[in-house]
Sequence to fold (445 residues):
Amino acid sequence: MKIYIKTYGCQMNERDSEACSGMLVARGHSLAETEKEADVLIYNTCSVRDQAERKAIGKVGIMKRLKRKKPDLIIGIMGCMAQNHGEELLKELPHVDFIIGTGQLHKVPDIIEELSNERVKHVLVTENPDVLDEMATHYAIDNNQIFAQVAITRGCNRFCSYCIVPYVRGREISRKIADIVKEVNELVQNGVKEILLLGQNVAAFGLGGDVNPPAPDVSPFADLLVELNDIEGLERIRFTSPYPSYFTDKLINAIATLPKVCNNIQLPLQSGSDRILKKMNRQYTAEQYLEIINKLKKSIPEVTFATDVIVGFPEETDEDFAATRDLLNEVGFVNAYLFKYSPRQGTPAAKIADQVPQEVKENRHQILLEDLKQRTVAHNKTFVGTTQQILVEGPSKRNSERWTGKTTNGKHVMFTWQDGIQPGSIINVAIKHCSTASLFGDIVE
Fold:
């Protein structure tokens, strides 16, 4: 059968879709490039924001027309929205054949085969098994692919007051180091040069779901990084998304001393106000967050930081927002994912009566975006006149004669292609000028 998978949401969803594709192809199915040519449509959904759910429901709703023309078409919904709403989705979308929650990814091939023989609605959202084998499955990894995502944990135990992830992804579980090392070795043997380690809270890897900050000399995640750093042929290791409290001295030292671990770190802040952090159930203060940042800066002079921030959280005052803005500028983030707060049904924050007006959220959001633009431009200018080592990614989508790559601290570099340069090559580029988004230069010996 020809199967089309549409993915909404985060990198973990992208990774789940890839794993699902790999399992389906291993069963003899093929992937369709468009919905019209498919025998099976699967929508991997997100529940982090209401808009993401509405977008997915709207898309699946439109597919009712296609099913009228193709009565044998199988339509399924998987992922966080499926886990969140379960059988309720069938009332709104009766033409859907199966609903698969976040813990049943490995059952998708069986369900599709069952549905091809007998049309019985399937709703599987209650289990949350400690089975992580499917997380190691990849689709079409070959010598043309230098980058791969590797899921190392699933679920979250933090229960931030605004977040629905623990309810739809389940409790936090980690894979074994040996299994991850085996997966990465196989990826590298097939040409992969850079990996991105994924999890709702990657830095809590191997801690058994403990929400208490570990001792300074404890970090199973650091142990994993050491093992991965030793893999011959692997060039770079990135990770997302960690929780600040797990950045122990051991982890900071590992990042600083392991040459393959990249020096661009995403460290979600969410707010620079201690009052708002407490309401968010983020178990650190602005001062504690800044202490971690300063340790990383001291250990890694060239380090750059990205972060996540929510503006307009319930009861956020002008003073709270100013504290966030000041902290963002003090750290000097060169990338930030800035979100306007939207309530998620079932979370504690949605019950707070004093919601910030939308126009205030919009205004604060624009202020932070402009600050980010100015910081990024200023930071990019510091690279002009320097020579940077980059991992070549391939041709630019806009100009095939210009290629692109990335520095260890996450800067995109554009350069004119030369004979012999291939994706995965490590080259030096002399930086001539910059834009808000990229650096531009020429290859040097």
Remarks:
- Residues 100 and 124 are 5 Å apart (CA to CA).
